[in-house]
Specification:
transmembrane; 3 helices
């Protein structure tokens, strides 16, 4: 019975760790790729001719 409870707690802890790691990784990727993503969006918006939206987003 004790081992069963330990196994469940380990699985829950692993799930929490995986969720936290995924959130941190996605946030760091957003911060790292923010410039490139904004560059792509700005290029598309300049092609459309709407530069004011890019300034408000940045």
């Amino acid at each position: 019975m004790m081992l069963f409870i330990l196994a469940i707690s380990m699985i829950v802890a692993m799930m929490f760790a995986a969720i936290i790691l995924m959130i941190e990784e996605s946030a760091s990727r957003r911060f790292n790729n923010q410039k490139s993503a904004f560059d792509l969006r700005s290029v598309r918006r300049v092609a459309r001719g709407t530069r004011s939206k890019r300034i408000t987003h940045a």
